[in-house]
User: What shape does this take?
Amino acid sequence: FAVPLWNEVMSVERIAKIKKAAASDKGLEIHILAKQFDWNARYAGNDDKFAPQNINFANKVDNPFGLNQSDANNDDVTVLSARDKDNTIMVPVNTPVALKITSMDVIHSFKVLPLRVCKDAIPGLQLPIHFEAKKDYLGLTEKEKGTGDWEKIYPITCAQLCGDGHGYMIGYLKVLPKDKFKAWLKEESEKQRAKRGEAATVVAKA
Assistant: This one.
């Protein structure tokens, strides 16, 4: 009884520190949302603040997180249906990452075996887990270590039987150098904010 309890307490403290460090680029918080049958992720964007969510905006097609897509101030970055190697959940190397995991429909389980990450995604709950992709354990070649021009992609699988499409529920997580991650997040944050600004203008005209 004591060992699991101690682990839970230490994990909660560690996750709190990672979230606090996220504002100084020494940590990263990502919200993971599972649904039949794909994985979705949300980042705070350039302002380091997560935008409010509203269930009235949520849908399974293009807005599972329930964000106000016509809010021009919302610069959150969302990665939807990360089942393509060109559309992956991104994490920087050598950076503590705190995940907040939930589900939109049934019980799923977020599993990235090479990084030893596995956590259930349960409707109505936001379950935390943390990990760090350390450069020394990514199997980089000497050339990759020297140039910094590399990426490592790992499969995300569902470790809970979640329906008739369970076997199709695969995604990808990409580990990359910190500078490349920062450039990606900055560009995506600006791009997605601009898109919401255009939507806000259309709503205002209507």
About this structure: DSSP finds three helices and ten strands in the chain. The first helix runs from residue 2 to 21. The helical segments are 2-21, 142-147, 178-205.
